[in-house]
Amino acid sequence: MRVGMPNSTALILITEAVSATRAEFLVFAKAHGAMDLRVPAEVRVVAKVPVLSSGKLDYSAVTKMVSGEDMKTRAA
User: Fold this and answer.
1) Which residues span the domain enclosing 37?
2) Domain tally for the chain?
3) Are 62 and 70 in contact, with CB atoms under 8 Å apart?
4) How far apart are CA 5 and CA 35, in angstroms?
5) Closest CA to 43 of 6, 18, 9
6) DSSP conformation class of 7
7) Could you write out the DSSP letters of every residue in 33-68?
């Protein structure tokens, strides 16, 4: 999910994995040849990633979550 001003967006990884960190994401991406992907600026751990009844990401709910401060941020 990208949030921010139109000319300045940050990629935020939303996950239920309690121990997830940005550093772990970088190691995984490098090990799997995916370094051409955009790297998240933050990793935010949530109790449950909101999804619609179809199983797709509830973009609206995630946007509201990201705008709030009710999640743990993992920049390490």
Assistant:
1) 2-74
2) 1
3) no
4) 25
5) 18
6) T
7) T-TTSPPPSEEEE-SS--B-TTSSB-HHHHHHHHHS
Given a contact cutoff of 8 angstroms between Cβ atoms, the answer to whether 75 and 22 are in contact is yes
Going by DSSP bridges, is the β-strand pair 2-5/42-45 parallel, antiparallel, or unpaired? unpaired
* Cβ 49 vs Cβ 16: under 8 Å: yes
Compute the Cα dihedral for 35, 75, 15, 9 and give only its sign: negative
Question: Using one digit for the tens of pLDDT, what is the confidence trace for 20-41?
Answer: 999 988 888 888 887 667 778 8
Residue 71: burial class (beta carbons within 10 Å; 0-12, 13-18, 19+)? middle
Q: How far apart are CA 3 and CA 39, in angstroms?
A: 14
Whether residue 24 contacts residue 46, with contact meaning beta carbons closer than 8 Å, is answered with no
Kindly report the pTM of this predicted structure.
Answer: 0.66
Closest CA to 1 of 28, 71, 30: 71
